[in-house]
Every structure is written in structure tokens, then in C-alpha cells.
């Protein structure tokens, strides 16, 4: 089982370099140094002991947006910052938003997207800690509560789905790189790996997928966050059928049709479909990468995610 999680590792060696590049910060809810990745402690309720790092650009906006960027298994926030997630910080320098990089601390450094505690609002575990990070940044930087977003790769993409399900009133949109639908990875303790889901063998109707999301926050009737999903057709770790299952789930949650309203190819081998709208901020967007493996995001993808968030 541990080996299965290790298969999700990407750029793991970057974690060693990252440790030397991170500046510690005081615990108080006060602004961190700008233009450097800074650790924040005592940021609020944190039942699973996550670590928090924040990147604040020199030109941070007066009422900044917040982007949470969640790493893959065996990774960390600093490793993601110094690796495939760095472009989110680079774009922050241009657009003035703040990036939060959470770090999982359990064995394997994977996020909890499989327990019953994680799959319901305020149930405990990692989602609660990440929400606390968002609230800390809002207090410290007077961040705009209507412009909070989340993105992630692999385990972080699974967490993106979970956070949008648990906290539709916190996050306005998400971008999931190589993820699975909300609830797909649920397991029975002590298991932390769901092979059926990873292999793309969990197939449900849009209504069934949507009900899983709605069940995480019973009684909620407010607006739901938009979703952008990315997947490579040759992904052998979290297999490609999960791409379409996520689209089925979020089109149902957002109440839009499953027939694309718009299709194009922003780059060779990339097929982009939009649902419920034709513009950059359509309710649901999918980007399929022909021949792509378990190595997203690559150059240029973060910029499309930021555009989907409406931040560029």
C-alpha cells in the first residue's frame, strides 16, 4: 500500500533543496516577508498537524486573492514551490495574489482524501487545517473572501475536489491536475489506498457523483465553486477515466449539461472542453493532454488555471 502511494511521487528530490530555501516566520497573524516562501505556525485549528508556507509577492494587491496550491504524495509545500508548482508563485508576482502551500506530514506525505472525517465539512483531518490557513491569510492580509481558489497535483488534486465539496462557501473555483472525483478514493480504515478508484474503475452516474458532494455539507443551498480538471491520457497512476468522472460530478453539482458548449485546442495535443458556458470562466472546464502521463502541471498550465480563476 505504501508503494502505491510512492508511485504518486514527483520531483521528490526537490524537497531536500526546498528545506534550505524556506525562511521561518513568527507565529502571529501578521504579514510575512514578501517575495520569499515563508513558514507560518499556529495558524488555527489543525487536527492533522499540517505545515503551512505562504508566498506573498512584493506587489501584493490591497485586497488580494488567495490561491492554495496543494502538493503530490511524498512532496511538501516547499518542494511544490520549487518544482512544478512554482509557476503559481511566478504569476503571483504579476497579478498580486497570495499563494498558500500546505504540507502533509503523515507517512508518505499524502493528503487525507479517503477517511469519513475528511469527506464531510468540519469533520476533522486535513481539510480543516487548510481552511484554517485560508482564514489566517484573510486576517493577516485583508484578503478578499470572494476570491479564494485551490489547485493541486495528484494527491493535491484529490484534495482540490475534497475542499470544493466541503467548503463551497470558502472556495470560488478549483483546478485539479491528475485528480479523482470527490469521494472516489474513500476507503475503510486502516487502508489509505483505493486501487479501484486509482485504476479508473469507479463509474457512477452524474447524479450519484453529485450527491456525494452535496452530502458533505447537508442543507447548503448557496453557490457552488467552478471546477477545471486536467488529465493525461497515458496516466498510469491515477488513470484517465477519472477525468470524465470528475466532469460528470461537477457538471451535476453546478447544474449544467454534460455536452460541451465549447471545444478547442489551446496547444498541440491539448483538448479543452467547456460546460455551461463558452468563456474563460465557464462553470466547468476540462483539459485532456494526449499522451500525457502523471507529470502535471507542466509549463503554461498554471497560467490557464489562473485565467480560469479570473485572476489574469
From TrEMBL:
Keywords: Hydrolase, Signal. GO terms for cellular component: extracellular region. InterPro entries: AB_hydrolase_fold, Esterase_phb, Plant_Biomass_Hydrol_Est. GO terms for molecular function: hydrolase activity. Pfam families: Esterase_PHB. SUPFAM superfamilies: alpha/beta-Hydrolases. The keyword Mitochondrion does not apply. It comes from the Bacteria. Residues 1-29 form the signal peptide. This is Poly(Hydroxyalkanoate) depolymerase family esterase. It comes from Allonocardiopsis opalescens.
Amino acid at each position: 500500500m505504501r508503494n502505491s502511494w510512492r508511485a504518486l511521487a514527483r520531483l521528490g528530490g526537490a524537497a531536500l533543496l526546498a528545506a534550505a530555501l524556506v525562511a521561518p516566520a513568527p507565529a502571529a497573524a501578521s504579514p510575512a516577508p514578501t517575495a520569499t516562501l515563508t513558514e507560518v505556525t499556529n495558524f488555527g485549528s489543525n487536527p492533522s498537524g499540517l505545515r503551512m508556507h505562504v508566498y506573498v509577492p512584493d506587489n501584493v494587491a490591497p485586497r488580494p486573492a488567495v490561491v492554495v496550491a496543494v502538493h503530490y504524495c511524498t512532496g511538501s509545500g516547499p518542494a511544490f514551490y520549487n518544482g512544478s508548482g512554482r509557476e503559481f508563485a511566478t504569476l503571483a508576482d504579476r497579478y498580486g495574489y497570495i499563494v498558500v502551500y500546505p504540507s502533509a506530514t503523515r507517512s508518505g506525505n499524502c493528503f487525507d482524501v479517503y477517511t469519513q472525517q475528511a469527506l464531510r465539512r468540519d469533520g476533522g483531518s486535513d481539510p480543516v487545517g487548510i481552511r484554517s490557513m485560508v482564514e489566517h491569510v484573510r486576517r493577516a492580509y485583508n484578503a478578499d473572501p470572494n476570491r479564494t481558489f485551490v489547485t493541486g497535483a495528484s494527491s493535491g488534486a484529490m484534495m482540490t475536489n475534497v475542499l470544493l465539496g466541503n467548503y463551497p462557501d470558502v472556495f470560488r473555483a478549483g483546478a485539479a491536475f491528475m485528480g479523482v472525483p470527490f469521494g472516489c478514493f474513500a476507503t475503510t480504515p486502516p487502508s489509505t489506498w483505493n486501487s479501484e478508484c486509482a485504476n479508473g474503475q469507479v463509474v457512477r452516474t452524474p447524479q450519484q457523483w453529485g450527491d456525494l458532494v452535496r452530502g458533505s455539507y447537508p442543507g447548503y443551498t448557496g453557490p457552488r465553486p467552478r471546477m477545471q480538471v486536467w488529465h493525461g491520457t497515458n496516466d498510469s497512476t491515477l488513470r484517465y477515466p477519472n477525468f470524465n468522472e470528475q466532469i460528470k460530478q461537477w457538471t451535476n453539482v453546478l447544474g449544467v449539461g454534460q455536452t460541451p458548449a465549447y471545444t478547442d485546442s489551446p496547444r498541440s495535443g491539448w483538448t479543452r472542453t467547456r460546460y455551461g458556458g463558452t468563456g474563460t470562466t465557464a462553470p466547468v472546464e476540462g483539459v485532456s493532454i494526449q499522451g500525457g502521463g502523471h507529470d502535471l502541471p507542466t509549463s503554461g498550465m498554471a497560467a490557464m488555471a489562473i485565467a480560469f480563476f479570473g485572476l489574469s
